[in-house]
Every structure is written in C-alpha cells, then in structure tokens.
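Anyone opening a protein record will find just a pair of labelled lines. The record below illustrates this layout.
***
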Amino acid sequence: MSTRDDDKLGVDELRARDHVRSLGVPRADADFRARLKAEFMGGAITERVPVSAEAATEARKVLVLPRPFFARPAFWASAASVAAALAIVVGIGNRGPDWQVTMAQGDGEVIVGAQHISMHDPKAIGAALARGGRVHLPVGNTLELVAPGEVAVRMTRVTDMTLPPSPNRWFARDVQVAVRQGDTFYSTGGAFHGAKLHVVTAQANVLVTGTSLAVLSNEDGTCVCVMEGRVAVAEAHPKSAAAAASHMIPAGKRYVFPSDGTESFEDDILMYSEHALHSLHGTAARLLGR
C-alpha cells in the first residue's frame, strides 16, 4: 500500500496508476489451486521461513549425551576383573593356617594319601599334610600337628583318620575329622573361637566348639573324654528319637558308645586320655596361643 497523496501525483504517475487499475485480476493455475487445497485440508501448510545453509545444518544435528559410566562395556569389564581379583584375595586371606608337625616319634612310615613317608622326616610329613589328608599311622608311633592359633591334633597307636584343612579365619569355619580307628587328641587355641570341629566315628558324632578332648575309636566302640570345656555328642546311627538327641559331656567326664549296640553311658575321664592331653598342651601351647 502507498502512503502518497494522489493530489500530488504527476501526469506520468497518474497515467501509470490508471493503467494498473485497469488490469484484470490474475487467476491461479488449476493444478496449483488443487495442490493448495489438498495441503490446506491435510494440515500440511506451514509457514516457510528461509534459512541459511549453516542454520539448516545446525538444525539437523542431534544432541548426543555421553553414556553413563555404568552403561559402558569397559566399566563392567573392569568391575568383573576387580570382583574376580577381590574373590581371590578374600579366598586366600580367609584360608586357615597350614598344619605344622610338632612331634613325630617312632619308626617305620606314615602313609598320607598314597605317599609313604618316613617317621624320621617330619618336614616331608608336614608338607604332605599342610592342607590335610588321609593319614595311616602304624602301631608304636605318635604324630602331632598344630594349626597355629586354631587347633592341635595328636594321634597314637594304629590310627586311620582324615584330617581336614584347618578352620578358615573369617567365614565357612566348620571342619570335619573322620576317625576310622585310633586314639586322637584335640586342643583348641585362642583363634578357634567361632569355629566348629566335627569328629565323626562309626558310632558317634562329636561337636567341638572350644575344648580339650580325646576321641578313642576301636573295635569295642567310641569313647569321648573331655578334660576342658564341654562337648556335645550324639549317636551316629540312632535307633530312636531319644538316642538321636545330643548329650553334653562336662569337663572330667567321658561318654562311651559301645559297638555291640548296648546303651551308651557316661563315666569319669580316663587317666590315659588326661595324661595325653596334658602332654599335648605342653608341646602345642605356644603355637596355640594358650
């Protein structure tokens, strides 16, 4: 629209104005009109604002945020490696101390697994039994081992037993000894607190939580002698609910499980067991921290 006053137009300007006014109104092409109508009805008509090539490029860019650390494969690979290393460190750190030989008396050979080792070679015996194993001790010999701070074990006469690794330091601290025959003596140390030692024979199950005791097993049955603390015992193959119940043996007493099926009974501790346990304390007390 012009803001000029027509009264001030010159002759040429008036002539041009009148010529333009005399022109007819142009009509849109039929195809254009049809396309425009379709776009209008379909809502496709939008305001078209010309943009520069640089602005168009920027508009097409997608904002990409960095992936969180926990969604990156490298993080989980590192975490898995750290977890595996930690498990190894904890497993090694949790492992209890190795058994050490503190006494090996007698002649002949002790059999550890399939190894025949001279009774005069305590270093080799200790290496074979560092993490436990099955032991066959011939008659007339005495073998004593200590897991420092945890427990000491002495075996005499003809003994066939399976010695476990010593109790772990922090968790999974239950261990089991299987005595098939022989006289075995046990004394726990200051670090044994919280651990459990299960001694199993043909006739009895013995639970040790901290004490000094003897487990004597032969063809006549099993005798459990307690010199210190208390020990829980139960029949290995009970024939009734009453027989399955555990019995607590106090210090100075013994409990006998006959192999002929007769009733178990309690009596005074054997002097033989008491003497052997005092001897065990004498040789193992320093390593046990008693």
About this structure: Helices lie at 11-22, 30-42, 53-60, 73-94, 122-128, 241-244, 271-288. The chain has seven helices and 15 strands.
